[in-house]
Amino acid sequence: MAKLPLSFYQNIEVNQLAVQLLGKRLYTCIDGVLTGGIIVETEAYKGVEDKASHAYGGRLTDRTRVMYEQGGLSYVYLCYGIHHLFNVVTAPQGMPHAVLIRGLEPVEGLDVMLERRNMAALKPNLTAGPGALAKAMGIDRGLNAKDLGGDEIWIEDKGLSFNGDEIVSSPRVGVGYAGDHALLPWRYYVKGNRFVSKPNS
Known about the structure:
This protein is mainly beta. The chain is built from 3 helices and 8 strands. Helices cover 10% and strands 29% of the residues.
């Protein structure tokens, strides 16, 4: 097992880290059941200066508090009261950067993922999109503020990486409220991977 070291998450360049997370493997172990997949899509959120970030302008609430902790923790929140979304807290303490994990190629515990998503067969929408992958992986608020080097939810480096021409950067999804920051190309995904959410061009 090659869990990412705490030092990996301290990078203050959140966009760089969002790219570096592509190809890493995200795992959960819930009630002894292991599920995992390859991260193929991410979005960067740059703390207090990013109009799309929950911490924009230094906003500090019960929900965003974990974003201000030292990088290497999970940030899980409920979107529209329906979907849980999983984010990686990054950067040193006091700098509330985070990377949303948007797409995952399943590799471990497929039967469990299908059951959690109430699906009969593997299709890309099993784990394409942040709400879908969180449900497939059993991620909910109970996994908020967890150590990503722990035994419940963690990320490993299995040596898979992508060249620059294999990675697409595009505007983030669903952040129209962020005005001019909605157009920033801070979404990254593996070109041609079928577990990338739409739009993927």
